[in-house]
Write a structure and sequence with these properties.
Elements (H helix, E strand, L loop, with lengths): L5 E7 H10 L5 H7 L3 E8 L7 E8 L4 E5 L9 E4 L8 E6 L14 E5 L13 E2 L4 E2 L8 E3 L5 E4 L8 E7 L2 E8 L12
Parallel strand pairs: 1-2
Antiparallel strand pairs: 2-3, 4-13, 5-6, 6-7, 8-9, 9-10, 10-11, 12-13
The protein binds FE2/S2 (inorganic) cluster.
The site of FE2/S2 (inorganic) cluster has 13 residues, from loops.
């Protein structure tokens, strides 16, 4: 659930940008506290001019969601989950490929997760994982195929964007989703709900 809070003192644009950048460097504890929170800060537009004014700016962060246990994953058997919400095109799968993948986690860096919606026109890639090529597809609509070892880059087909990759974090045996690399089909903002 989201909540708003004001951060004081007020900041200039430059300071606000710097503050946003610092959020990437916060401790795990602070990140846990901030996950899923919409923070409102005040920024000053055109500082030092007669037109200077303070306006609110919102920073929305991805939720941190438990997905499954690393030890429960069987090689080449995808596990489905929704993220970052339960809305349209939020279906994803996580898979232990048995081959290292970009962004992969685990001892062999072979556990990756991707969204199921084809970036071309939203065709469902459900149940299209191919163990032999570590790919997803071909999309049932226009045959796009994506390489899961290389951040979901397009191998062939009509799409021109990579498949959105779910960013994963491993804590002990627990796997968490913490963000998304790429834009989910049908959304202007991955967090639009
Ligand atoms: S919708 Fe998947 S290739 Fe067109």
């Amino acid at each position: 659930m989201s909540q708003d809070m004001n951060t004081k003192p007020t900041m200039t644009r430059k300071q606000a940008a710097k503050a946003v950048g610092h959020k990437c460097l916060v401790s795990r504890r602070n990140f846990l506290i901030g996950a899923g929170v919409t923070t409102t800060i005040m920024i000053t537009l055109d500082p030092g001019t007669p037109q200077a004014q303070q306006v609110p700016a919102q920073i929305t962060e991805y939720p941190r969601k438990f997905i499954t246990k690393l030890s429960s994953l069987k090689q080449d058997e995808p596990f489905d989950f929704s993220y970052p919400d339960e809305g349209e095109y939020s279906d994803n799968m996580i898979v232990k490929m048995g081959a290292q993948g970009g962004g992969g986690i685990g001892p062999d860096k072979d556990v990756v997760a991707f969204n199921y919606a084809c970036t071309h026109q939203g065709g469902s890639l459900f149940d299209s994982y191919k163990a032999d090529t570590k790919s997803m597809g071909a999309c049932p609509l226009h045959l796009s195929t994506y390489d899961l070892t290389r951040h979901g880059i397009l191998i062939s087909g009509q799409a021109y964007q990579s498949l959105p990759q779910i960013l994963l974090e491993l804590e002990g045996d627990d796997i968490y989703a913490t963000g998304i690399f790429g834009l989910i089909y049908g959304r202007k903002n991955n967090l639009q709900g």
